[in-house]
Amino acid sequence: MRKYSKIYKIKPREKRGRFWVLSFFAGIFAIQMGCSLCCSSEPIQFETVFSDLISQLSYLVLPLVPLHLAIYLLHFRKANYDLKTFNKFFARINMKTKAGVSVLVMSIFLLIVLDDESKLENGKLLDLVIQSIAAAVAVMLFDCLKIQRNTVEDEEVVARAKHHVAPGLAMAYFRYIENVVKGAYEEDGTEISKPHEEALHEYIKENEIGSARDWVSKKIIILFPESDQIRGTVQEIAKREKEDGENHCLTLDPITHKYFSSGQPRTSVLNVIKIKDNEIKIPYSCSEGCFRNPLVKSKSIDCDQIQMRNRESLLGVTPSGLCEKIHERKEWQNNYVIFAENRPLNTLYQMVDAPESQISFTRKDFEVQFKLYYAELKRLIEEDDVCKNKVELFLYHDYEHKKSGNFSKNLKNKILEMKMRDQKDN
Predict the structure, then answer these.
(1) In the chain, helix, strand, coil percent, each to 5?
(2) What is the pTM of this model?
(3) Which pLDDT belongs to residue 6?
(4) How far apart, in whole angstroms, are the C-alpha atoms of residue 415 and residue 421?
């Protein structure tokens, strides 16, 4: 998947650009008219200004006829000269718009080919044919190069379509996450699986990671890596532990939840990533021989022994040679991040990798469905009063070289963001 700068947050323009485009052309036209009037040697009169305005406007709309004819002929060729198929190309255009354009084109056509006496002029008709051929060549070139295509509009069309996989994947995965967060119960109220908060407390207690040196995320993280290779699977995360620059690791004991799917009991697994961060200094009372002079054991004259004892008392060393001072040692804070494997995202990757004989799903289709899936899952989670406080989506770029420690760096930034948020809430 190619890089894109958070395009999932950008809404299509929805025809908002028409005002600015029309304003730009109107301004250029006004400047041209003003310059022509100011540079004219004739006195400015209303009839002169009006005739010049009509002349300039007619000059601007003259290309509309050959362009209109060229577009219709090109689409008629695409439809294999079938009128039913041809009509489908323009089915989404408003009827009033089509009628208005047709009437305008016919009026301009008559203005072009008729002379002052309303007779057909062969020279003007020949010029119109030549212009139509030139316009057809230009339209065919634009169509071959796909210059007229707009990515944002294409994505909006796909988003409005009824047949795409992203909403279904998001809904199925949300139901799974919902069971994990809220727990599963029988119809009579018997608990099948504990809610995530209770299961997390038990996990912390069993693994003894509740000290001041340990930080455990309260939320379940769902990884959304934007990458052309990385999929964010458990196997990939475990494999990247050995790469240069990475300092994370998967714990051996995951958090398990039980749930039912299609009437069958299932077990879900929430994996835990451990990553060290924030070097801290911890004071401690030293009881070891961190300072011992070999002269302490030597037997010398009494004056030498007295001098050594005075030196030991100044350095905080007991006569036995053990230090009793308060020292500081450097330790790392252990951060534990609970994440759920994003299996629907893996499904989209598998659809891309599938041969074309099985399914037609291109990289561009994947990018569109990726953004739709992310947006739909985010919406479902934010609309649930419980899940929105227990689940968080982690969208990040993972295009860097594999030896740069990119995953650990992104994860540390996310942990720092969550810690700062926890401090504000407390």
Answers:
(1) 55, 20, 30
(2) 0.54
(3) 40
(4) 10
